[in-house]
Each structure stands twice: as C-alpha cells, then as structure tokens.
Amino acid sequence: MSALLDVSGLRVALGRGRGRTEILHGVDLTVAPGEIVGLIGETGSGKTTLARAVLGLVPPSAGTVAVGGREVGGLRGAAQRAFRRGGAVQYVFQDPLRSLDPDRTVFDTLVEGLAVRGRSRAELREAAEDAARLVSLPADLLPRHPGELSGGQRQRVAIGRAIAVGPRLLICDEPVSALDASTRITILELLLRLRETRDLGVLLITHDLGSLGGVADRVVVLYHGRVVETGTTEEIFLAPRHPYTRLLVTSVPSIRDEQPPDPAARRALREQVRALASADLS
Ligand SMILES: Nc1ncnc2c1ncn2[C@@H]1O[C@H](COP(=O)(O)OP(=O)(O)OP(=O)(O)O)[C@@H](O)[C@H]1O
User: Fold this and answer.
1) Which of 77, 95, 147, 248 has its CA 20 to 30 A from that of 110?
2) Which residue out of 45, 54, 172, 220 has the highest number of ligand 1 atoms within 8 Å of its CB and is therefore the one to mutate?
3) Which GO terms label this protein's molecular function in UniProt (predicted)?
4) What's the pLDDT tens digit per position in 50-61?
C-alpha cells in the first residue's frame, strides 16, 4: 500500500540567529490510508514540531514531507494556503476547551471548515448532522456551546469538526490525555471506527505508550528529534530494542504487571537512557 504520509529525512530548525537549534534531525515516518501510527516521545522530543511540519506550519531545512504523493513541505504563500484550505490533513488538539471557540455552538463548530465554501443552510445542517452522527454526538447538543459539554463530548466535537472537511490524514496530538479513563477508551474507539469507515490515516501523538495499545497498528519512537525505533505495536510492546523504548514499555502498568521487571534491570535501563540523554546534550 502506498503511503498517505511520507516523511523522509526531515530536518527542522527553530529559533532565530544564534538561538536557532535543530529540533528534528532527519526523521523518516510513513502513514498508510486506514493506518493508525502512534508517535511516542517524551516532552521536548519534537512530536509537535513534526506535526507542524506536516501541516506546513514550519518549513523543513532538509528532507521531504509528502501527502498523497504530493510534496507539501516546501509549499509557500498561495500554494501553501490552498493546501491547508483543501483540508487533506486535519489536526486535533489535546485540550478541546482551548481549541474550541467558547462562543460558537456545536453546530457552527462542526461546519466551521465548510461555511467558507459557500454552502446553503440546508446543506450545512445536513453536514453538521452527519458529522455529529459520525462522532456519536446526540443531535440535541448541536445548539449548545463548548462550556455546556463534558470533556469527552468536546473532544468529539473537535474530531467531528476535523472529519467534516473530509481529510485523508488526521493528526491527533495527545487527544485523550485530558480525559478520564473510560472517556479515553470511547475516544480511541471512535478513532478506530473512523479509520475503518473512512479509510482515514491517523498519526496519534502521545507520551503515554499505554494509550496506544489496542489502537495503533505501528509505533514510531521519537527521542531527542530522532526516530530510534519503529515497529508494529506488538513488536514495540513485546520486543522493544532501544533502551528508551524498553524504559517506556516497563513504565506501562498493564504490561509491567503481566511481566514484573527485575528492579535491577529497570535501574540499568534508566542509567542507559540517562547516559544517552547527556550524550545528546553535549
Ligand atoms: N518556536 C520555537 N523556537 C525554538 N525552539 C522551539 C520552538 N518551539 C519548540 N521549540 C523547542 O523544540 C523542542 C521540541 O518541542 P516540541 O513541542 O516539538 O516537543 P514535543 O515532543 O511535542 O513536547 P510535548 O510533549 O511537551 O508537547 C523543545 O526543546 C522546544 O523547546
């Protein structure tokens, strides 16, 4: 299957003048249609920078970003705006309360990306109802405002808004970390359903490996701006190769409890990861 998202040798530097630092040091990553890829890494590893590069918000200093076979990393000006308006890639933020306009009803939010395309009110109502159905939001919530919804309902609105414009790739940045455990499961199930019904590719960004189990087909491990390991979720969970990945795996309670790690082995792993981190900083 050809890649929907193909990131190759991506380097991104941020900051100005002497403060300019390379954040991504040659990242390779693919997402196929209908595939959920987990992107995991600790805070500051460059996950959001990678997402921003895919959205065309930060330019690569080297490497390529292709969506549906089309190079989008180097787009500028009108071509870049047209790519963003086209809606092929949509972004869902961690905190829906901050990403949703508090003064906008659920209805208006769901059709936000469509309204500018000059549709009739009847078409918009149909689109809003379709989007609400897709993300299992009851129609009686359409006139409400974000402040009147639960955290899970807000995240459904944010996902519904993204889906309404018909994206091929959804980038979800920590979509469940602000939610309680049972709501997390329903949102992750929603992503699973959407990838099946819509053949949607999903890049699921998280620092919590546990939330990827049962959802991601593959996992990409980012460490200090480099991909240190890629594998199927099963490979990553059962046979992690890189010390950082092994540390992540032993930190997931459900895995840890099945195979209690030897405390000495765990300490040794921490030491290895610490040594790697200081090597990177020097
Ligand atoms: N505009 C900027 N200028 C300079 N450095 C930046 C800028 N934005 C981010 N950085 C740095 O880039 C690095 C990666 O940040 P990024 O937000 O991509 O990490 P992350 O993995 O998404 O972290 P988190 O999980 O905390 O969101 C960090 O060290 C950050 O301080």
Assistant:
1) 77
2) 45
3) ATP binding
4) 999 998 889 899
